[in-house]
Amino acid sequence: MAKIQQIIAREILSSGSTPSVEVKVVLETGTIGVASVPYGASAGISEAFVLLDGDKNRFMGKGMIKAVENVNKIIAPVLIGMDVGEVGSQNAVDQKMIELDGTERKTNLGANAILGVSLAVARASANDQKLPMYRYIRQVFGLEKYGLLPGSQKPAGEGGCDYVLPNPMMVVIEGGAHADESTDLQEYMISLIGNDSVAENVRRGIEIYFTLKKVLKDKGYNSNVGNEGAFAPNGLPSNETPLELIKEAVEKSGYIFGKDVGISLDPAVSEIYENEKYELAKDGKNLNSDEMINYFVSWINNYPIITLEDALAETDWQAWPKLTEKVGDKIAIVGDDLTVTNPKLLQKAIDLKAINSILIKLNQIGTLSETVECCMLARQNGIMTIISHRGGGETNDTTMIDLAVAVNAGFVKVGPSRGERVEKYNRLMEIETELAGNCTVAGSNFRKII
Length: 450
Ligand code: PGA
Ligand code: ZN
Prior knowledge:
CATH class of the largest domain: Alpha Beta
Strand order of the largest sheet: 6-7-8-12-13-14-15-16
Bound molecules: 2-phosphoglycolic acid, zinc ion
Structural class: alpha/beta
CATH superfamily of the largest domain: Enolase-like C-terminal domain
Largest sheet: 8 strands, mixed, barrel
């Protein structure tokens, strides 16, 4: 156990050069923890509030000096002296900030301020106990009671293992709000579901990424990249074309499409939903909810799509259960903007049978405790978790990876290229090495590890 001695925030840059917040926590033992928060480009409307300065003379209004000051002047004095490290202590710290803010969406202090502190406290505390973050998360939240199961169901040391590592889900073609003049839909991803190892799956993914670059060039498309390091070619004839291009890249790389590699999609269609219609400009279509569902069902019948995220708008709740009813037994129907890592919205989605999987982003809800609560609520209800980066602005902080390992997530959605993204894969591969003999890979069993 150790007490918090000092909390200091500063404004930093995230990828995409939008500002963000970094927080340093110093414990009385002298141990330090540093963490930073990401920034979303296509944020859901119910996400926790990101406090921006709004001063047009600095960073086009996107400065985060106010959030920094909220940490240094309002949050720090209240948290200094609190104990960290014991079961329940992270919850106590996060709860204190939630009360101090006093609003549903953290609009007073800003989720960017609160999350920075939450993660830096966790980091300091884990460092103090000389625990890797994934072990710390399991311990401080007492996660063992949720039966986070060894891949083989046996205890470690008896042929079982304590951790199931997530599969890589890599964005390889991006459009929508993440790139100009590409597709209407936001993300086309490759999910590596071979059962070998994380490092092997990452390698395969990167090989396919490079092969895709060649496929694009050979067909006369440009291979410039968008926000997340994925290709954002213009001039594609339809929203379906990327599926064909990916198929070609997978096969040319020597992998079996549908077995080693599946397709994951995040159309993020809240961005193209207006007056109860989905505007697919590239296809010259304007679809109602049922037609939108059928549009994706026909793709599912023709391609090995294994996860489908935000295929309907975040406000189109009535349509989600229809989609899940239709294809939920075959593929993962994932809520992102719909559920925004919020346990209350997840509960609503569970009650309505709207989804069978959820995307998890720490800054959508704004504390580590609420994020873990959401993951455990998912687990208790058979909902697979996918831990995700943010498209707009990432930092080199890798907490999302340790979180994924701690909660037995099925996938991590990140990358494939750019420093702040590959940092995540490097961390995942580091954990795999560290856990040698005590971990397995989700692989094609990803829906069975919940
Ligand atoms: P973001 O989008 O830019 O809001 O992080 C990524 C996503 O929708 O998954
Ligand atoms: Zn999404």
